[in-house]
């Protein structure tokens, strides 16, 4: 079986849907040749889809894994509920736990995440440790639950987390209201995936957010082919206007997540299962320095690094795949050696 990246509607994987806790989830399933040695569940972030793992799914299948990759709540073929409570880490963790149980019953999964999906991976492991054999995150460090709530605008005004300034715009009304319809959604996606205007004009900057005036100037994003951009755009149109409401809701959850996690913040949580964290050296949204101090929460944390921007899954796919593969071989005590 080829390890080349997935293309839209790739015949090597199946697209399925399931009712999960009253919501319709769309996900892709990749099965290896022969009996799977284990099951990997992959969680995407913003503004991705399950398709964001297109460079990893065939690789993991070639190693003998069954791979399950959902569109997360608010995205693509999965429902985008109005209620913000459906987007909390705790609610999403319950969703993915139920989805995973469809494949492994009372068994365990290996869990991976990127961007918001990385936070979900850490939190899902926190809420359902019995489900997780091992967990990895690309770009997203572990943020321990806090017993004190501080609004993001206050944090930024105090000179901290300047790289999250764009999140204030995303949580507000402007992006959702201004960018509706196929053309605007396509421009938005182009901006996030690195497109620039003829004179280098950016469509997005972490210290400001979307540069609305520059959007009509943008060319083809370097991180998506035209076919891939077409696919992303069509998937974003599935849930109707305002098309960005669901994905942007992930930026509106700070207080609700804090309230859910207070009980854990007070007693703490320790990761006893094997964990892997891969940083991207040029990630402006989640710079490697943000992971300082996270090791103390883990019994068995492996660190890796790739030379890439935030979009390491595609920019540095060989590096990500190789490091995850070697770590998995250690976790599974040599079961992958033939494939590696």
From TrEMBL:
SUPFAM superfamilies: alpha/beta-Hydrolases (SSF53474). InterPro entries: AB_hydrolase_1, AB_hydrolase_fold, Epox_hydrolase-like. The keyword Hydrolase applies. Keywords: Hydrolase. It comes from the Eukaryota. Pfam families: Abhydrolase_1. Gene3D superfamilies: alpha/beta hydrolase. Residues 39-313 form the AB hydrolase-1 domain. GO terms for molecular function: hydrolase activity. Belongs to the AB hydrolase superfamily. Epoxide hydrolase family. This is Alpha/Beta hydrolase protein.
């Amino acid at each position: 079986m080829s390890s080349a990246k997935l293309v839209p509607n790739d015949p090597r994987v199946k697209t399925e849907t399931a009712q999960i806790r009253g919501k319709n989830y769309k996900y892709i399933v990749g099965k290896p040749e022969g009996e799977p040695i284990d099951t990997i569940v992959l969680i995407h972030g913003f503004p991705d889809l399950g398709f964001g793992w297109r460079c990893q799914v065939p690789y993991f299948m070639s190693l003998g894994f069954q791979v399950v990759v959902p569109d997360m709540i608010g995205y693509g073929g999965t429902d985008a509920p109005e209620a913000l409570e459906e987007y909390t880490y705790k609610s999403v963790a319950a969703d993915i736990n139920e989805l995973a149980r469809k494949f492994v019953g009372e068994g365990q999964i290996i869990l991976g995440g990127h961007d918001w999906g990385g936070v979900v991976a850490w939190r899902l492991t926190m809420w359902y440790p019995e489900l997780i054999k091992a967990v990895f995150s690309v770009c997203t460090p572990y943020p321990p639950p806090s017993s004190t709530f501080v609004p993001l605008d206050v944090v930024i005004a105090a000179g901290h987390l300047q790289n999250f300034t764009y999140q204030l715009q995303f949580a507000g009304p402007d992006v959702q209201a201004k960018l509706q319809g196929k053309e605007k959604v396509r421009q938005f996606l182009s901006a996030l995936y690195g497109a620039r205007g003829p004179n280098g004009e950016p469509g997005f900057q972490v210290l400001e957010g979307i540069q609305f005036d520059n959007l009509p100037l943008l060319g083809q994003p370097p991180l998506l082919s035209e076919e891939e951009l077409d696919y992303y755009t069509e998937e974003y149109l599935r849930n109707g206007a305002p098309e960005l409401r669901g994905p942007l809701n992930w930026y509106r959850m700070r207080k609700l997540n804090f309230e859910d996690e207070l009980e854990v913040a007070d007693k703490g949580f320790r990761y006893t299962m094997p964990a892997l964290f891969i940083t991207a050296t040029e990630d402006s949204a989640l710079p490697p320095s943000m992971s300082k101090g996270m090791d103390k929460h883990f019994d068995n944390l492996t660190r890796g690094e790739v030379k890439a921007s935030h979009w390491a899954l595609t920019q540095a796919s060989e590096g990500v795949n190789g490091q995850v593969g070697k770590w998995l071989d250690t976790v599974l005590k040599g079961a992958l050696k033939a494939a590696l």
